[in-house]
Structure formats: C-alpha cells, structure tokens
Amino acid sequence: MAGVEKIRADFEDLLPVMANKLGGEGLIKELCNGFQLLMDKDRGVITMESLRRNSLSPELMQESRFWLEEAFEEELKSDGL
Fold first, then answer.
1. What φ, ψ does residue 55 adopt, rounded to 5°?
2. Which DSSP string corresponds to 8-51?
3. Residue 81 pLDDT exceeds 60
C-alpha cells in the first residue's frame, strides 16, 4: 500500500519456555487467566475495547510484575550470580 510504512518488530516466542516451566496443565490455566483478565465480561470475548480497557488493569499489571521478577531471578541464577 502506498504511504504505509512497514514496521518491523523483534519478537521472541516465549510460549515454549512457559510450557516447559509450567507444564501443559499450568500453561492452559495461565492462558485462561489471561483471557479472563482481557475479555469483555458481558460478551465473554476479547474485543478491541476490552483489550484497551483491561490491558492496564491492576490485576494484569501485578501479573506482569510477577513474571518479570521471576524472569530476572532465573536469569541471575543461570548467570551464576
């Protein structure tokens, strides 16, 4: 399309890492929890509006903080620090 710039985003698929860490059942549980946090409660689906509204929810921010802290701890352990 004319006038549309392509944006390149670096992406690392961490789903296999999560699956190894949580196991199959734990991964499905976490995916369901994430869906519950992002969905439109009245419609039972994730919409653009529910994504905008819920992506900065306190629950989601707390989950993100937990995952980041855990990832940093694992990284430090693997580096032998």
1. -65, -20
2. -------HHHHHHHHHHHHHHHHHHHHHHHHSBTTTTB--HHHH
3. no
